[in-house]
Design a protein that fits this description.
Layout lengths: L5 H13 L4 H8 L3 H13 L3 E6 L7 E6 L1 H15 L5 H11 L4 H23 L4 H14 L4 E5 L9 E5 L5 H6 L2 H4 L1 H8 L3 E7 L8 E7 L2
Antiparallel strand pairs: 1-2, 3-4, 4-6, 5-6
Helix pairs in contact: 2-3, 6-10
């Protein structure tokens, strides 16, 4: 990808958050002309960073819905890790592979779980004991520094007062997770430990084919 094109990166980030969108919606979100968006989409498609599907929405011509391709996700993840100085995952995959070759599957599962538990305790120390919104703001910073595109916002739901939705649109350890998919299963447990006195429920999961991972986080009174 031509990294000098901030507009292309903006389009990729927009699609990463939206999941899939037509060119017109991207133009409205970014505040640029649909013609300019379509030119960039054509370039991104040629670079294999996006893909599209055709759908019929009402009468008229079929509409093209664009989404970030697996190569595009990997490119964004790599760029963010470079910007944030995050550690590449190649050595982690090799190290875990060497460990997996010398221990039983049960022992490997225990190792991964203990690693997530330690990560959760490290997060807890850095998040402190302030209001939930403040802790989530700090968690977003920590995760972003690790290569995740994360955000949070309050939930306007009478059934979940004072709750927040914490969302991640990419996976900073995707290469590790592809080799050791059980790693993803521990993320819910990790956030529950890191955010004391909170209930954490998974709402979206990339493993299930969704374009993001999401967690509903509610304080326990």
């Amino acid at each position: 990808m031509n990294t000098t094109s901030s507009t292309k990166q903006d389009i990729l980030h927009c699609l990463l958050k939206q999941g899939r969108s037509p060119a017109q919606d991207i133009a409205e979100i970014l505040g640029i002309s649909p013609q300019a968006v379509r030119r960039h989409l054509k370039d991104l498609e040629e670079e294999h960073l996006i893909e599209y599907e055709t759908t019929q929405m009402g009468v008229g011509r079929p509409q093209l819905l664009y989404r970030v391709s697996p190569s595009g996700r990997e490119q964004l993840r790599h760029l963010q890790q470079l910007q944030e100085g995050a550690t590449p995952n190649g050595f982690a995959v090799e190290l875990l592979g060497a460990v997996a070759a010398t221990v039983s599957p049960e022992q490997m599962q225990d190792i991964l779980q203990k690693a997530w538990q330690q990560k959760a305790l490290d997060y807890r120390k850095q998040l402190g004991n302030g209001p939930l919104g403040d802790r989530l703001a700090q968690l977003v910073k920590l995760r972003y520094a690790e290569g995740y595109m994360a955000e949070y916002y309050p939930v306007t739901d009478a059934e979940n007062p004072n709750a927040y939705l914490f969302t991640e649109y990419n996976c900073a350890i995707s290469s590790v997770a592809q080799t050791f998919p059980t790693i993803c299963e521990h993320e819910l447990e990790m956030f529950a430990i890191a955010l004391e006195h909170c209930q954490v429920k998974r709402t979206h999961w990339m493993v299930d084919g969704e374009h993001r991972c999401g967690y509903l986080i509610s304080p326990i009174n």
